[in-house]
Amino acid sequence: MDPVRNPFAPGAGSQPPELAGRDDIISDALIALKRTMIGRHARSQMLLGLRGTGKTVLLNSIENAAEEEGYLTSVIEAPEDKPLAELLYPRMQQVLRKLSFVTAAKAKTHDAMKALRGFASVFSIEMGDLSISVDPEPGVADSGNLEYDLSDLFVAIGVAAKAAGKGWCLLIDEVQYLKEEELAALIVAIHKIGQKQLPVIFFGAGLPQLAGLSGDAKSYAERLFSYPKVGALDKGAAWHAIKGPIDEEEEEITNSALEEILQITEGYPYFLQEWGFQSWNTADSSPIDKTDIQAATQTALKRLDDGFFRVRFDRLTPKEREYVIAMSELGKGPYRSSEVAEHLGETPNKLGPRRAQIIAKGMIYSPQYGDIDFTVPMFDDYLRRNSKVIG
User: What does the pLDDT look like over 258-283, one tens digit per residue?
Assistant: First the structure.
């Protein structure tokens, strides 16, 4: 079959040809956007899910919806080693530049620019080509306390956006990598703009532990956000995610081939795209059948092992690798921390720091007290499959 016409798109954040099974999340986000724009209360959202479940794709879809509703959007991916203030500054400056062209918002935008200038100075942000040609406003967003200053700044931007008849939608991926004080400051700022009914809304995405991290940062976070779970697709949605794009190309796939893909991938969106992609390229002609899936599986697994799985495993130290391999040797998760410790011949307390470091790297998480599991679906299979090479 023609690889040029292959409709599947496996990749980090790549838009799939069919965004199946996520209608409720998109609908709730759109309602929140519409309500926020008219000054009605709406919860910001934190999308929670494992790797490969399509959180970034959903953020991209929400960004597009926000722009259609009249929002200026700012998208950030939170790295592990860059301060939040430094990440936000160029995005906020960009928003204010756009608002400055709206006549009705010029005065409020000027005020917000002065606040941003003070913010940049107090947090020693290198402004470079993005320098602001206004003097800072003393006493606004310049205390050096991120929790206070970010709130001042969000309010100033919200007031300017309202004057312009616009909104501001901030979207942050990998929120779990923010430091606790940064997450707390973000939560306080979102709370403040909500109290003032300003047209500013936030959408975040992160690993499952993000809900707990948010609650630890500020106890009222559970009331401030909704936490949609982005998991594996149910059978109907997974079926449609594969069959729909093939039908659109006027080709066919047998029911037995679909069942084989669903069984192997367990309904995880990234893997559905990978198996769809490889199956299309493997098949000589339509319909794609079960034999094609079996042949494509070898190619798909090798590509995942060499890329998706390997790059994550390589981030671990030898001792951390020993820990996750021990997890996989116990079978399917979730795993009791005490069982992993026993398997390694160590005490749970002694392994605590190592476990915490692996969690900080986003490789494992705690679904409930005393339990741990992988944040990457099928990672345990990868470790067992390659035990002789990586062990």
Answer: 999 999 999 999 999 999 999 999 99
Task: Classify each residue of 327-366 as buried b or exposed e, where b means 16 or more C-beta atoms within 10 Å of its C-beta.
Answer: bbeeeebbbebebbbeebeeeeeebeebbeebbebbbbbb
How far, in Å, CA of 238 to CA of 272, rounded?
A: 7
> Could you tell me the CA-to-CA distances from 290 to 153, 187, 242, 250, 260 in Å, in that order?
57, 49, 14, 19, 7
CATH 2.30.110.10 fits 315-390, yes or no: no
DSSP E strands in 142-253: the ranges are 167-173, 200-206, 225-226
Contacts of 73 (CB under 8 A, 6+ apart): 63, 66, 67, 168, 169, 170, 171
Parse the chain into domains and list their residue ranges.
3-13+233-312, 23-226, 315-390
Terminal Cα-to-Cα distance of the chain (whole angstroms): 39
Domain 23-226 falls in which CATH fold? Answer: Rossmann fold (3.40.50)
Distance between CA atoms of residues 373 and 254, nearest Å? 34
In what helix (H) or strand (E) does residue 261 lie, and over which residues does it extend? helix 255-265
DSSP code of residue 5: G
Nearest-5° Cα angle at 328, 323 to 332: 135
> Residue 131 — very low, low, confident or very high, per pLDDT cuts 50/70/90?
low
Using a 10 angstrom Cβ sphere, with 0-12 exposed, 13-18 middle and 19 or more buried, the burial of residue 284 is exposed
Cβ contacts of 162 within 8 Å, gap of 6 or more: 108, 198, 199
The Cα 329–Cα 322 span in angstroms is 11
> How does pLDDT run across 59-103, given as a tens digit for each residue?
999 999 999 999 999 999 998 788 999 999 999 999 999 999 999
Under 8 Å between Cβ of 214 and 46? yes
